[in-house]
Fold:
Amino acid sequence: MRNIKLIIEYDGTAYSGWQVQPNGLTIQEVIEQALAKMLGERTPLHGSGRTDAGVHARGMVACFKTARTMPLRAFREGLNCLLPGDIAVREAHEVPLDFHPRFDAQAKHYRYTMLLDDLRSPLVRHTAWRVRGKLDIEAMRAACRLFVGEHDFAAFRATNCAAKTTVRRIFSMELVQEGRLLHLDINGSGFLKNMVRIITGTLIEVGHGKMSAADVARLLKGGDRQHAGMTVPPQGLCLMQVFYPAQSGE
Structure:
C-alpha cells in the first residue's frame, strides 16, 4: 500500500467548498470521482482542511492510499486529464503511510486579496474583493502587528464555529501592495472558521478610521464577535501553502 500526497490548485468559484456535502458540488467530490475513474475503485481523499464556497487554493494538500504501482507522474497527469479546467494537481509525492495532511500540518499560509478601486474590475472579480474609498494602509499595518503571537480569537470566528478552543498562534501577518491590489498574508498554526475573512474585515474598518489599534487589542483579549469587522466575501481568499515537518515528505 502507498500513501500519495497531492498538491492541488483550484478556483473555488463554482464549488460549495472543499469538503463533500449533500447540497452542492465540491472540490473533494470532483477529485474523488476522477480518482475512481483512474484507479478503477472508490478511493477516499483526505485534505489538509476545509475551504468554504468560493474560496481558492494554490497549495491544498490531500492524500489517498492505493496499491497501484504506477509512477508518481502518472498520478498527476492521469488526474489532470480527468479533472475540469478549474482544478489541477500540481505535484504528487509518496509519503509515509502514517502521514495525514490535516493532523500533521504545522502551519498554513492564507492570502486575502483586495482590489482598491471605486470601479469594478471584471478581470479580478473572482479572485479579489473590491474595497471602495481610501484606506490608511499604515494604520492597518500597525494593527497587523497586534495579531502576531498567541491570542484568543473568539471575536474572529463564525457564530457556528465548532472549534473546542479559540486560542491560535499567528506567526506572521503583513500587507503587500501590488498596484491596485492589496494582499493580506497570514501564516498561522491553525485558523477558526471565517477567521481570516473576519480579520480582513476588521483591518478594513481600521483603514477607514472606524476602528483603532486599541479596539483591535481589546478584541484579541477575548472580545465579542459583534464588535469585530464584517466577514468579507470568499472570493478574495486563497490557501497558499500548508507546512509540514521535513520528515513527513514535504
In short: DSSP finds five helices and ten strands in the chain. The first strand starts at residue 2 and ends at 10. The helical segments are 27-39, 72-82, 137-147, 195-207, 213-219.
